[in-house]
Design goal:
The complex is a heterodimer of chains A (about 230) and B (about 120). By secondary structure, chain A is mostly helical. Chain A has two domains: about 90 residues; about 100 residues. In chain A, the strands form two sheets. Chain A has a two-stranded antiparallel sheet. In chain A, strands 3-4 form a two-stranded antiparallel sheet. Chain A starts with 7 loop residues before the first strand and ends with a helix. Chain B has about 120 residues and is α/β, with parallel strands linked by helices. Chain B has a single domain, classed as Response regulator (Rossmann fold, 3-Layer(aba) Sandwich), CATH 3.40.50.2300. Chain B has five helices and five strands. In chain B, strands 2-1-3-4-5 form a five-stranded parallel sheet, with helices on both faces. The longest helix of chain B has 13 residues. The chains are: A mainly alpha (about 230), B alpha/beta (about 120). Chains A and B meet through helix 3 and strand 4 of A and helix 1, strand 2 and helix 2 of B.
Chain lengths: ~230, ~120
């Protein structure tokens, strides 16, 4: 078993990685929100029912002045109960906004930038729930994609250099046995490779820039430009 | 005889590729880190014989991680495996105290380099 620090285990046979904890956090958070609101609502309702239960006794035994006081107290308790429920719902809303809505908004913006080719965009992945896990996975996808793009750049650069060398060696008069088709095909292959490089150049890479034909860190490129 | 190795790279695909290459030659990959700070922590806890280190990573980069590892253990054996231009960065790798610098698209050459160490 290979050890990592990101709370994942790697299966030595399949190489697949799985998280040892964290799955179901969002479900638990929703459950806690539901239970909090339900318990507060039930508590307020019971308090009001108890108060209402005292109503007939007070109404039957006490004078109209006390009855008005009872109604005023009841009204006050209803307002207090409603305020408590509003506070609970508001708390749940703020919690869900901070833990779900805001990270999802950031995720949508970053994912949109990634889709447009900006691989330097980072999705927040610090949350311990599934949203954090999605963020980490999408970031990982961008990192892998960048890795493939740079690999494509390096391989095509090497192939183009070799083709240029071959074309130079095959200049007219150097070798009469070379078919003209070979030269045409070599030039065509070079153009295909250059098209692939154009595609790679159209992406904004994370912390890396392609300067002429070299892959450099963004800092080095800035130093060169300055 | 195979060496115990810690792979440091932010790309899971690259870690997988390097791991397969190393395992095919009988080496034992005992840990994987996806950034420099994880690498420093795992180096301390696993004490591997060799570290393959990427340079560009989110968070702490490979050069800084190598500096920290080598400041704790002067004998640490670190090989940089990067996509960055070799001519530009191999010198810096050597200055830090790394045992080698290889381009990732020639990662299989790491086996020859390990044999030479």
């Amino acid at each position: 078993m290979t050890q990592t620090l990101d709370n994942t285990k790697t299966d030595p046979k399949t190489g697949s990685r799985e998280r040892s904890g964290g799955i179901g956090h969002l479900k638990h958070q929703f459950l806690w929100c539901f239970l909090s609101i339900t318990l507060i609502t039930i508590g307020v309702s019971i308090a009001l029912l108890i108060e209402l239960g005292n109503g007939p006794r007070l109404a039957g035994t006490v004078d109209p002045g006390n009855s008005a006081a009872f109604l005023a107290a009841l009204r006050w308790r209803i307002v207090l109960g409603a305020a408590l429920i509003v506070v609970a719902v508001g708390g749940v809303f703020l919690f869900l906004h901070a833990r779900i809505a805001r990270p999802m908004e950031k995720m949508a913006v970053a994912a949109g930038r990634m889709a447009e080719g900006c691989l330097g965009a980072t999705i927040p992945d610090h949350l311990s729930n599934e949203i954090g896990q999605i963020g980490a996975s999408v970031n990982g996808l961008a990192v892998n994609f960048q890795e493939v793009l740079i690999l494509v750049w390096n391989q095509t650069e090497e192939a183009i250099t070799k083709i240029r060398r071959i074309i130079r060696q095959m200049k007219p008069g150097c070798d009469e046995h070379v078919s003209p088709d070979i030269m045409v095909n070599l030039k065509s292959a070079r153009q295909d490779l250059e098209t692939m490089q154009m595609m790679v150049r159209s992406f904004d890479l994370y912390d890396v820039a392609i300067n002429d034909s070299d892959v450099l860190t963004a800092k080095s490129t800035a130093d060169t430009i300055n | 005889m195979g060496k115990t190795i810690l792979i440091v790279d932010d790309s899971s695909i690259m870690r997988k590729m390097i791991k397969e290459t190393l395992k095919s030659a009988g080496h034992d990959v005992i840990g994987e880190a996806k950034n420099g700070s994880d690498a420093v922590a795992l180096y301390k806890s696993l004490d591997p014989e060799l570290v393959t280190m990427d340079i560009t990573m989110r968070g702490m980069d490979g050069f800084e991680a190598a500096r920290q590892i080598l400041s704790d253990d002067r004998e640490a054996c670190i090989i940089f495996l990067s996509n960055l231009d070799e001519a530009q960065y191999s010198q810096e790798a050597k200055q830090i105290g790394a045992k080698g610098y290889l381009n990732k698209h020639r990662s299989k050459e790491i086996l020859t380099l390990i044999e030479q160490l």
